[in-house]
Design a protein that fits this description.
- It comes from Streptomyces amakusaensis.
- InterPro entries: P-loop_NTPase, T4SS_component.
- This is ATP/GTP-binding protein.
- This protein has 478 residues and is α/β, with parallel strands linked by helices.
- It folds into 2 domains: 299 residues, Rossmann fold, CATH 3.40.50.300; 88 residues, no CATH class.
- The chain is built from 20 helices and 15 strands.
- The strands form 3 sheets. The protein has an 11-stranded mixed β-sheet, sandwiched between helices.
- Strand 1 and strand 2 form a beta hairpin.
- Helix 17 crosses helix 18.
- It starts with a helix and ends in a 5-residue tail after the last helix.
Length: 478
């Protein structure tokens, strides 16, 4: 079983490559029901087939954008074992074949392999191990510094404040917020004088030792400035630990320089969060930091030819107004700048959508996804796992594609009511078989889309090893 999972199964290109499809008008009229939903075009990733019409089901938010699909965000839901992870894994692999870049926040552990269930797919596609995070660090563990130079100064200040507020469980008042901003600035000055990058411990130290000049500038005494930021310093100590205490929630994950192993240039980057306790403050803060890190580094403008917009020529499209667009790059023989498309996948996304602070933090991803060339995919079991906060409701409304696998009747009715779907869909969802889902793409409902896998993909999408007899699932295994 382990040997099978460590293979490079996507090597046989003929199993997943797109083949030309030839049809004639009369053939199409005979095969496709006139009452069937319209197709999403022939460009994109093959999902499978729409059972009621027999048509191939091809989906790509970047290809279908503007033609009935206002954006690329997606939410996938359904009971355990119905095919949610299989769909998103094969979809990600097939989109990478079309030139996309993918980042996965993997919180779903395979106990028998002691790693996340996306690890095998990531190694198969890129040859790289996942970026692992573990409380306390350890061999192979990674660290992201919220004060990394790749994050702009303003975003650093916002991120550190978010970390403190999440740790406190409340919003900082104006006095505490001002003290924190001063401490961040002082932490940078002191770290620069030592020739290194500042870390959160430097901010905590600066909060406990404010400068007299900073207090005067704010018309406060030094003791008053100390009191303003003292609680925030205690929170950072509790989260990041100290020389005397190494039990902080974020020790080994956010308390040091960014690990060299955290690279975002490959086609797929898997952040393995399976060792981080779900629902705790550590998971919430870690996802918040990763989100900002992705926004500042991974989502920077980049053409499909691999160059930045500044390396492309400007082409004037209106001489009267001077309007121009980004055009070709002779150095790479690129004819026109085309934004490299990206996909962000969050497994077990209830810990994101169910936390108002995280939902608000990711709102920028969702709201400006079109301008960023980004598609966000959230995988949950049921909408009842997510609260009904305004932030969560806003995130759900920005999901332009909804994929629903089979659910129990009560959960199906709750999901249909919350999403505003027709009443008949609740009974229909209950009767769906494994691997078949109801898709809502924009305003169009596809009642039964069967997801199809090729042999090369099957064991990569298998996530129930602990419940299944290996000899039954893999008859050729030893």
């Amino acid at each position: 079983m382990t040997d099978l999972l460590n293979l490079a199964p996507l090597t046989p290109m003929h199993q997943t490559v797109r083949r030309p499809l030839h049809t004639e008008t009369t053939t199409s009229q005979a095969l496709y029901l006139p009452v069937a939903p319209p197709t999403l075009g022939s460009a994109g990733a093959i999902i499978g087939r729409e059972l009621y019409s027999g048509k191939a089901f091809i989906y790509c938010p970047f290809s279908a954008f503007g033609d009935g699909l206002p954006g690329g965000n997606m939410i996938v839901m359904g009971d355990t074992g119905r095919g949610k992870s299989s769909l998103t894994k094969t979809y990600a692999a097939r989109q990478i074949r079309l030139g996309r870049k993918v980042v996965v926040l993997d919180t779903k552990e395979q106990k028998e392999r002691e790693e996340g269930e996306w690890a095998a797919l990531g190694r198969s596609l890129t040859g790289m191990a996942p970026v692992k995070f573990a409380p306390g660090g350890g061999p192979g563990a990674s660290c992201i510094n919220p004060m990394d130079p790749s994050i702009s100064g303003k975003r650093q200040a916002e991120l550190v404040r978010t970390i403190v507020e999440l740790g406190l469980g409340k919003t900082l008042d104006e006095f505490a917020g001002s003290a924190l901003r001063i401490a961040i600035r002082r932490a940078h000055h002191r770290a620069d004088s030592l020739g290194r990058t500042p870390v959160l411990a430097d901010v905590a130290a600066a909060l406990r030792a404010p400068e007299e000049s900073d207090a005067v500038a704010k018309q406060r005494t030094r003791d008053e400035l100390l009191a303003d930021g003292l609680e925030a310093s205690y929170v950072l100590d509790r989260l990041c630990g100290s020389e005397q205490d190494s039990t902080g929630d974020l020790v080994g994950m956010l308390d040091g320089p960014t690990s060299l192993g955290v690279g975002l240039d490959t086609d797929m980057v898997v952040f393995d969060l399976t060792k981080v306790p779900s629902g705790g403050v550590a998971m919430t803060i870690l996802v918040a930091v990763i989100s900002v890190f992705l926004e500042e580094v991974w989502l920077r403008p980049l053409c499909e030819c691999g160059t930045e917009p500044s390396q492309h020529e400007r082409v004037v499209v209106d001489a009267d107004s001077g309007a121009w667009e980004v055009g070709p790059n002779p150095a790479t023989s690129c004819r026109r700048y085309s934004q490299r498309k990206r996909i962000l996948i969050a497994e077990e996304a209830w810990h994101i959508l169910g936390t108002p602070q995280l939902a608000a933090l990711l709102e920028k991803f969702l709201k400006f996804a079109r301008g960023l060339g980004l598609s966000c995919i959230f995988i949950v079991h049921h909408l009842s796992d997510i609260d009904d906060s305004p932030e969560t409701q806003a995130a759900l409304k920005m999901a332009d594609t909804v994929v629903i696998y089979s659910m129990k009747k009560a959960e199906a009715e709750a999901a249909v009511a919350r999403l505003g779907l027709p009443a008949w869909t609740a009974d229909h969802i209950v009767r769906l078989r494994r691997g078949i889902a109801l898709w809502v793409v924009g305003e169009v409902i596809y009642p039964a889309v069967q997801h199809l896998l090729v042999v090369a993909e099957q064991h990569l999408c298998f996530s129930s090893g602990s419940m299944t007899d290996v000899s039954t699932s893999y008859p050729d295994a030893a």
